[in-house]
Each structure stands twice: as C-alpha cells, then as structure tokens.
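re: ur question from yesterday

yeah so i grabbed the chain u mentioned. its 244 aa long if i counted rite. heres the sequnce exactly as i have it in my notes:
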Amino acid sequence: MIKAVIVDDEPKAIQGLSWELGNFKNEIDVIKTFTSPEEAILYLNSTPPDCLFLDIQMPTMDGFQFLDKLINRQFAVVITTAYNEYGIKAIKQEVTDYLLKPIDSDDLRDTIYKIKKHKSKHNNTAQLEHALTKFNGKLNNNRITINTDGKLLFVEVDDILFVESDGNYSTIFLMNNQKIVLTKKLKEVNAMLPEHYFFRIHNSYIVNLTKIKEYIKNDGYVIMQSNKKIPVARQRKSDFLDRL
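ran it thru and got these structure tokens back, copy pasting raw so excuse formatting
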C-alpha cells in the first residue's frame, strides 16, 4: 500500500484529488493533507511517506521552494498544477510525475504505477545499501559507502578533502582531484562522515580536519591541501578552533 501526502493551499483541490485517489483505495492511502506548506515540511522531514502530491502555486512559497526545504527526499514526488510551464523545472527536481489539473483518472492510474516502481526501486536500493554498509563497516571503519548514479562506492575517509553543498546536491572532493556528486543535502552527508575527522565549517562546506594546510585567522578561512580556500562561518569559529 502506498502512503501518500497531499500539499495544496486550496482545500477544494485537496478534496478533489483525495476523491480521485479513492478510486484506487486498494493501492494508495492518503495519510495526511496540508494547506500550509510550513506545517507540511515539518511533518515530511520527520515522517516521510511513499509519495507526495504537491501543488506549485502557493501563497507563502512555490512547490520548488518547498522541495528545497526537505531534508531527505527519498519518496516519490508528483507535481499537481493547472499550469504546464513548470515542466523543465520539474524535470530538474527529478519528480516522479507531473499532473495537470483537472486530473484525469487514466493519467492518475499511470502515475500510481510510476510511484510503485519508485517505491520498489528505493526499497531494494535501501536494503542493498544497508547490507553493504554494514558489511563494509565490519571490514574497515575508515571507509564510507556512497550510493550514487546507480552504484555503491566505497571511499576511504582519508581520501576526502571536503564536501560542498549545492542545494539538494552535494559534491565530495577527493585527494586525487576526482569529484563525487550526490543527490543528498549537506546535512545528510554530514551524518555519513565520522565526526572525529570532519567538521561542518560553513553552511555550504564540510572539511576533513586532517587535510587543512593553513588557517588564516584575520580573514576567517582555511586553505586545504588542494589549495582550495574555504570560509569559516563566524558562528562556527569557536567550535572549529576547539576541534583544532
């Protein structure tokens, strides 16, 4: 059974979509609805469903701003809107489907099929990642497992210089000048890394403390072994100096 959440600022739109989804009650269950994006974000970040039906045009934020505020978006996202000009943005956000209002039952049936595929793929990947991460951890505590581009990479902690955030993406920079791009926010990547080696020095950066070459106190930045300059956030400076 697919557990779904609907976010739309119009109660009538929520009622209409809920009624349409009721035709597929053996396959999908609407567990929660929200007219407030802010309340929805709090809920989704603590209780992720299998699928989110999301309106684009809302008063306090649009649907894409909403997606940027989600911490760990592993669930399927279906855009529901009366406007068709958001298709390119939706593709960039890697949404599962894009439904135009009023929603057609046949289109909704196709969407549910796509949600099922997404859920199955995510479950299989999560199980495999968990098993391999556990196995890898037993073999080597100084190595992390990274899921990216349909592959699981085993990366030595000592090979990581720093991690840089780019919205919903993060890039890991390695000693050999290679980069690994992840569809994870920096907060998620930070949770993967051993705390005694790494420190979130700035909202946009995590650094490997053992790879810092210099700390320029007056200007407030560090120079990594690759000569990359990374700023130290003012509010993190004291904790950073304690770690050094």
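noticed a couple things. The longest strand covers residues 28-34. also The chain has seven helices and 15 strands.
anyway ttyl
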